[in-house]
Write a structure and sequence with these properties.
By secondary structure, the protein is of the alpha+beta class. The chain has 24 helices and 22 strands. The chain folds into five domains: about 55 residues, Helix Hairpins (Orthogonal Bundle), CATH 1.10.287; about 240 residues, D-amino Acid Aminotransferase, Chain A, domain 1 (2-Layer Sandwich); about 100 residues, Beta Barrel (OB fold (Dihydrolipoamide Acetyltransferase, E2P)); about 150 residues, Orthogonal Bundle (DNA polymerase, domain 1), CATH 1.10.150.20; about 70 residues, BRCT domain (Rossmann fold). Helix 12 crosses helix 13.
Length: about 675
């Protein structure tokens, strides 16, 4: 292969690799590499395309940026294009950016506006005559994916503003660090994959189909710029931020106008260290020419504005020693390896543990006990092991091996079908018991306040708890005798436990901890099987006929109820008085009993959640997509692609909100 063939091959490799990483970052919210590593790939491609222009193509990722658009969601064109920012990884690069502007325009040092770069998901909000019309993601810069209902769950974003023209307002949706920790704790209890960092969690949350689920994530936002505006307002970036604050938008308070290199350096260096004290992730500083007239004069490249740049903080990377690798057992039996490190201070806190994910990660890293390892903590609560320092590695270091038996109960471990997750299948494993109790008492399950992880551990150690049934048979006198367990807190716990007996069937079903059964799936099952024995006796064939119950879930349900100890648990809980029936008042034999519904568009008289409740209360069944299984599509304003798809299926009845109310014998006044 000659030199030119090698160059062409390298360019094609870089194009494919950048496109792959774009998809991982923007569409799957699951990046494999850091922003710095990604930018190095792009810069190498750009450099080669400059040197060998014959290999440069219009569809090259050097000429475009990643897109978060998917085939399943409705999209709307932006009225003014959304660009990405060029990145700088040193203050020297930022200085060069500023001096280039000064030299190109032949002007004195202009004012710049410096703002924190929020590590979240870009959004575009369009207001007409002061009212929010829709919200979209950045998409591919020209077109954005609609996320209006999910944006409305962020209470700080106003639905109405005093500006009566047409205007696009842009900003970043983010997840507070405390919420990120809470969500990951809950996902761990449910045996779900953890989010790597708050940015990934925010991106995944904003694109959820259920606004009610999004509301539970407690997303927040900072707004910072205008897109299209008619009439045009604001002559500077600082004025834009001031107007947004005046209109009651959440605006990041830590911005500053600067007019010297020293002020710029001081601002960037200050936040490079202070950022770890914030309740949100910021991965850099955005530097913009403050004057909008200068911005228009400087214009844009194919991808980015020439008047702005993002200075990216370096992800803190340190070297420490791998002392050991432990293997944790979750409530579903999933075994997760954790690196035990020589304690080291990094990114604002001292850490001594790092995630290793699974057996494949251990093999990829070729870990040995005693190795010097590189760790990074960039927007991640739990640090990540990047690699091993193999130089001068002693031969005596023992290679880390994934255990063949459970580290707690010694039961033989088994892999899942994909061979990625390893499970302990012993349901009586003590480690699983702790996690199962935590799940059973959690907020979305039985919601027993006072039975959090710390108290569960304490009660297990003192033989007050021995299993789920024992929650309802605890010796409260013994609890009072323990340290930090007073009479008042014990009485409150007792009342919370008694109150849990009245929880709805679907919450109890979720609390049982059946693998792959989340809160939403439990609710679906409770509608189809209003008594527990109906579900216990349901066959695989019956289960997979239910919308949203696939093979994996159906197999898990059948397998769970095939174990006599699980049946005995249910019988014991029934005898204690827990609710294993769906007690919701459902009007049977109505026109919509067992009919499948989907709602699309904006309704007039009811919110989406209220209309869902009416459907379920009258015996209807909610499904999430248009298919031949759908009986009724209820449409409101801006119905979109679901309506178009439904029109192609003759069996689907397309009705209005008023038509639906007539079906159930109601009118809007009821």
């Amino acid at each position: 292969m000659d030199l030119f063939d090698q160059i062409k091959e390298r360019i094609n490799f870089l194009k494919a690799e950048i496109r792959r990483h774009n998809q991982l970052y923007y569409q799957k919210a699951n990046p494999e590499i850091s922003d710095f590593e990604y930018d190095q790939l792009v810069k190498e491609l750009e450099s080669l395309e400059i040197q060998y222009p014959e290999y440069k193509t219009e569809d090259s990722p050097s000429q475009q940026f990643g897109s978060d658009l998917t085939d399943t969601q409705k999209s709307i064109p932006h009225k003014q294009r959304m660009y990405s920012l060029d990145n700088a990884y040193s203050l020297e690069e930022v200085h060069n950016f500023i001096y280039k502007i000064i030299n190109d325009l032949q002007i004195p040092f202009p004012d710049f506006c410096c703002e924190q770069k929020i590590d979240g998901l870009s959004v575009n909000l369009f207001y007409h005559q002061g009212s929010l019309q829709y919200a979209t993601t950045r998409g591919d810069g020209f077109v954005g994916e609609v996320v209006t209902e999910n944006i409305k769950t962020i209470s700080e974003i106003p639905l109405n503003i005093p500006f009566k023209g047409d205007i696009e307002i842009r900003g970043e949706v983010y997840l507070p660090v405390s919420e990120f920790e809470r969500i990951n704790e809950e996902r761990q209890l449910e045996g779900l994959k953890l989010f790597a960092n708050p940015r990934n969690a925010a991106a995944g949350s904003l694109k959820l189909k259920s606004s009610e689920e999004v509301r539970k994530r407690h997303l927040k936002a900072f707004l910072y710029s205008f897109g299209f505006s008619n009439p045009t307002i604001a002559k500077s970036q600082a004025e834009i931020l001031s107007l947004l604050k005046e209109w009651n938008f959440p605006v990041n308070p830590y911005f500053k106008k600067i007019n010297s290199i020293q002020q710029l350096d001081d601002f960037c260096n200050y936040w490079d260290t202070e950022r770890f004290k914030l309740e949100y992730d910021t991965d850099g500083i955005v530097i913009k020419t403050d004057s909008t007239d200068l911005q228009q004069e400087l214009s844009y490249t194919a991808k980015s504005p020439k008047w702005a740049i993002a200075y990216k903080f370096k992800a803190e990377e340190k070297i420490t020693e791998l002392i050991d690798v432990t293997f944790q057992v979750g409530r579903t039996g999933a075994v997760t390896p954790v690196a035990i490190l020589k304690p080291i201070f990094i990114a604002g806190s001292q850490v001594s543990r790092a995630t290793l994910h699974n057996i494949e990660e251990i093999e990829r890293l070729d870990l040995r006990i005693g190795d010097k390892v590189r760790i990074i903590k960039s927007g991640e609560i739990i640090p990540k092991v990047l690699g091993v320092i193999e130089e001068n590695r002693p031969e005596v270091h023992l290679k880390v091996k994934f255990p063949e038996t459970c580290p707690v109960c010694q039961q033989k471990l088994e892999k899942d079908e994909e061979g990625v997750i390893t499970y302990c299948i012993n349901s009586n494993c003590p480690a699983q018991l702790q996690r199962r109790l935590e799940h059973f008492t959690s907020r979305e399950a039985m919601d027993i306040e006072g039975l959090g992880p710390a108290n569960i551990k304490l009660f297990l150690e003192n033989n007050i708890l021995s299993g789920i049934e024992s929650i309802y048979q605890m010796d409260y006198e013994k609890i009072i005798s323990l340290d930090r367990q007073g009479e008042k807190s014990t009485e409150n716990l007792k009342q919370a436990i008694e109150q849990s007996k009245t929880q709805a069937f679907h919450r109890l079903l979720f609390a049982l901890g059946i693998r792959f059964i989340g809160a939403k799936t439990a609710k679906i099952l409770s509608k189809h099987f209003p008594e527990i024995d109906l579900l216990i006796n349901a066959s695989f064939e019956t289960l997979i006929k239910i919308p949203e119950i696939g093979d994996k879930i159906a197999l898990s349900i059948v397998e769970f109820f095939s174990h006599e100890d699980n049946i005995q648990l249910i019988r014991n809980l029934q005898n204690i008085g827990l609710n294993f029936k769906n007690e919701e008042e459902i009007k049977q034999n109505t026109a919509i009993t067992n009919k499948k519904f989907l709602v699309t568009g904006t309704l007039i008289h009811y919110t989406r959640n209220e209309i869902h409740q009416l459907i379920e209360q009258n015996g209807g069944i909610l499904i999430s997509s248009v298919s031949k299984n759908l009986d009724y599509l209820i449409t409101g304003e801006s119905a979109g692609s679901k309506l178009d798809k439904a029109k192609k299926i003759p069996s689907i009845q397309i009705i209005s909100e008023t038509d639906f109310l007539a079906l159930i014998g109601m009118n809007k006044e009821e």
